[in-house]
Amino acid sequence: MKHKHHILVVDDEPNVLVTYRLILQQRGYRVSAAVSSEEARQAITNDGIDLVLCDLSLEKQENGFDVIEFARQKDSQVPAVLLTGYATPEANDRAHELGIPVLFKPIDINELLETISALLRENYEQHEATG
Amino acid sequence: MASPQMRVQSETPTPAGKGRRSALRLLSIERTDEIYPVLLEEIVALGHPRALIAKVNFETSEIAPSASLNCSKALLQRFETTLFSMENPLARILHTLEPELVPGRAKRGVDYYHHPLIYRNSTACWEAERARSGKCVAVENYHCHLKLQLQQQVCSICDMRAYAAMAVVEVKREATETDIAELRALIELANRYLSRLFKVEHYQHRMLDMEITITQMQTVMESMTDPVILTDPQHRVITQNKAAERYFRLPEDVSEGRVRAVELNNLLFSAALSSMAVSGTDSSRDMTLVDAIEGDEVLFEAVSAPSFAPDGRRTGMVTVLRDVTDLRRADEELRANYEKLRQAEEVVRQDRDRLNLVIENVGDPIVVCDRDAKVALLDPLALELLGSESGRSTLNMRNQSKLDAYITKFTYSFSDRESAPIQLTHPATLQEVEYDARSGKIYDERGLVAYTVTVLRDLTSVRRLEQLKMERRMLEMEKFAAAGRLAGTIAHEVNNPMEAIKNCIFLLTDQIKPEAGPVYEILKAETERVARIVRQMLGLYRNTEQVGNFDVNSVVEDTLMLFARQLDRSGIRVDRELNELPPALGSADQIRQVLSNLVVNAKDSMNQGGVLRVRTRKARKHDFTEVIRILVADSGCGISSGMLRTMFEPFVTTKGERGTGLGLWIVKGIIENHGGKLKVRSQPDRGTVFSIELPSVA
Q: Which pLDDT score is estimated for B10?
């Protein structure tokens, strides 16, 4: 791998956030962790993000879709994965429309890792094809 | 009574010499047919050349010679005539009954003395004496010198046919008055003896006739199967038939028991006769006799009638014993049957009362109509709706005409049963009530309609009940949903900390000292188990939202699509048969949960691959409500019988570490909350079938 993929992890539970970060770093990814949508936006603005891994329900009225949309304003092709303990059917439908996989907590880590690498590979191949 | 002999002597002059001998000779005769020959001989002995006797045949009215002496054939032929040939002296004299000397044909110059011989006597016969009647034909012939008339020559007392004949004597040439008188005396004497012998012979004939009659009577008596006994006035047995001998005659092989039985029978019998004779009015009496041969006791009815002699004297009794054992038994049976009948009647009466009680307490109006659709019976509730004969309001009449139209149509239809909605107005509340009229027919033995019975079910109350049921079901679902939400909320709260723990454990992989390995493994396994429970609970939370009509088939399709890859990977072929269904009422998400759980279970039971069969169809239950049936069948390892009992309880699992034990518990809860039913059939190593029945939206 020539360059480390940069993954943005967003979760309002700091302890959970830390563990995701550690696991992804262990797998050789460059990881930015954000505990709020505020931090997430900053990270997106400051740096190029290859994938957004985001909890659906964040603090206050914010949610994962806001963060992902923000990220896609910068890079419309950026892949994303939603994590949630519970999703309303509307949220499910919306994720489906946007092509965002939803993983339900408690998450099977292997499944998460597989999903992430698949999305990155897919995106990379598309990138290669287009430009 | 004086002897006839004496009478003869007093009336006739004493015959001297020859005459006396003739008298004695005639007297010694004992048979009528011997009189004429002797008479003829005695006539000839008096010196007359020839004589003959011509007899009257009363049957043919012919007169013909029957005995003769010294007469030629030609002469005899001259005396053949009939009673009606009055020109013939024979017939004429028989009518005058006066002896007459008739001059013969001129050429020969002989006279013929004609003397009629008829049955006559100066005294009446025994029978006439006994009857105290002088109408004895013999006496009548003696006293009255009437002309002989055929029909009169039968005795009115004893029905005896008299005789009539004519003695014809060719008188000797030099005959004097004395000779003629002598001849006359002889013939009259002979006739007197003849009359007596004739009567004796008559008695003898009577006796023979009587013997025949007695024999006939005895035959009749013997041929009677009932014992018949003739007794004298002292109740001594005169005669009895064989049937009676069985009871009253001492048998020949005298055994003591039989003798006693016969003696007792005789005693009983004469006692019965005595008491009947004393009472004078009773003519029958019951008595029990012992059969001397069989030893059985036989119940008899003795019917007695006194017998009388012709003069009215009582000569005894005739008793007929009728075996009434069978009759009495039949009588008893009749009584028993009557009693049975009475009891049956009582049962029927009770049944009827009970039925009436049932009808009164059905709580629905009941109308019974006859074959012409006219009301025959109403229960109190129906009476309220339709009114009685005496008082009927306009509302009652309107209800009646509505019901009439329905019942008339049903009565003349070919169907046995009928049901139809009918709107009637309740007179008390003045509200229109919708009734469900259900009718049936009662047929008579010829198969014709005898009655129709119509029960009116108040549908408003039924509807209200259904509504109530539905509301309760919704409440139950709501409660389940609330429980689910609570569980979900808790799970949600546990979820994040658990996520952290789980991730930590993942991070520690390969960093654990070997001696801590087993502890790490326990930590990992138990955490995963908690994770699964939380996942299941969140699933419950996730799926408790919308309640409404939904299509079961599309839920099935969704579920199967969701699991398609997993099933395919496990080598499981899916065999689906989805039939057209009415919509179901409830939560589609919950049913999806149910199907998911069942599909996952099925998949887990088929490690080596197999077939998953999913079938949906609509069905009609006995009460005609439509239901939706869902079948989920696998060809997996099956469920043990012990497990079948407990599998729906929470936290029961066969999957060990990997299962939560909540799947089937949730399935059952959801189905029951939908007012449905869940059934399971399973055979180890053959597979398991779950069938779900859900109510449809009618």
A: 40
Q: Check if A111 contacts B (Cβ < 8 Å).
A: no
What pLDDT was estimated at residue A22?
Answer: 92
Cα of A131 to nearest chain B Cα, Å? 34
Q: Measuring CA to CA, which residue among B298, B294, B290, B304 is closest to residue B323? A: B298
Residue A108's domain spans which residues? 6-126
Tokens linked to B551? 């299509």
> Does residue A131 belong to any structural domain of this protein?
no
Distance from CA of B537 to the nearest CA of A (A): 11
**ipTM score:** 0.85
C-alpha separations of B336 from A19, B183, B330, B340, B374 in Å:
101, 90, 10, 6, 41
Residues B95 and B31 in one domain: yes
Mutate one of B542, B550, B558, B593 to test the A interface: name it (highest A CB count within 10 A). Answer: B542
Chain B: give the shortest CA distance to residue A80, in Å: 20
Strands (E), B489-571: 548-550
Identify from B499, B543, B545 which residue to disrupt to test chain A contact, counting A C-beta atoms within 10 A and taking the largest count.
Answer: B499
Instruction: Say which range, A7-16, A90-99, B281-290, B420-429, has the weakest mean pLDDT.
Output: B281-290
**Is-contact B388 B375, C-beta < 8 A?**
no
In this structure, is residue B121 part of a structural domain? Answer: yes
Q: Which residues of B608-640 are buried (b: 16+ CB within 10 A; e: fewer)?
A: eebebbbbbeeeeeeeeeebbbbebbbbbbbbe
CATH number at residue B265: 3.30.450.20
> Is the CB of residue B299 less than 8 Å away from at least one CB of chain A?
no
Closest among B609, B614, B613, B607 to B630, alpha carbons compared: B614
Domain of residue B18 covers: 4-207
Residues of chain B with pLDDT under 70: 1-18, 105-108, 134, 144-148, 150-151, 251, 254, 280-282, 474, 476-481, 484-485, 539-546, 650-651, 656-660, 698
* Per-residue model confidence (pLDDT) at position B59: 84
How many beta-carbon pairs below 8 A join chains A and B? 54
CB contact under 8 A, A15 and B531: no
| Cβ separation A109–B502 shorter than 8 A | yes
> CATH number, domain at B186?
3.30.450.40
The first and second tokens of residue B210, run together, are 């009587």
- Band (pLDDT 50/70/90 cuts) for residue A51 is very high
Mean pLDDT of A66-89: 86
Could you give the C-alpha distances from B633 to B576, B609, B610, B638, B680, in angstroms and in order? 10, 13, 11, 10, 10
The reply to whether B29 and B178 lie within a common domain is: yes
pLDDT at A116 over 90: yes
Q: Which of A109, A112, A114 to mutate to test the interface with B (most CBs of B within 10 A)?
A: A109
Give B471→chain A minimum CA distance, Å. 26
DSSP state of B696: B
Asked if A65 has any chain B CB less than 8 Å from its own CB, the reply is no
**A36 within some domain:** yes
Q: Is residue A59 part of a domain?
A: yes
Same domain, B394 and B422: yes
DSSP H helical ranges for B543-570:
552-569
B539 in a structural domain: no
Domain with residue A73: its CATH number is: 3.40.50.2300
pLDDT tens for residues B327-360? 888 888 999 999 999 999 999 999 888 888 887 7
Count of C-beta atoms within a 10 Å radius of residue B652: 16
Sort out which chain A residues have CB atoms less than 8 A from B492's CB and list them: 85-86
Shortest CA gap B504–chain A (Å)? 6
Number of domains making up chain B? 4
Residues B161 and B237 in one domain: no
**Do B257 and B140 share a domain, yes or no?**
no
Q: Does A90 touch chain B (CB under 8 A)?
A: no
CB contact under 8 A, B500 and A107: no
